[in-house]
Amino acid sequence: MTKASAKPIPAADSLAVNALPATYEGALGELEQLVAQLESGAMPLDQLLSGYQRGAQLLQFCRDKLQAVEDQIKVLDEGTLKAWKPQ
Fold it and tell me: Sign of the CA dihedral 17, 50, 62, 23?
């Protein structure tokens, strides 16, 4: 039996071309699943780099969303309500 017949793991290559999730929660969930796959050692070596790249994209997306929320809180703390423009 070859490794190809083992439990299928979504190809990291296909993850790298996927659009980013619409929400912070969606990105965080995908990132957590990806980290679990990477840490399990079950990903083939040739997919590790793609998985890492997708993880970096998701991490940056989450950081951007958190920064946008922090910026909005700063605006509210200054006593001025301004329209929030999500990124």
Answer: positive
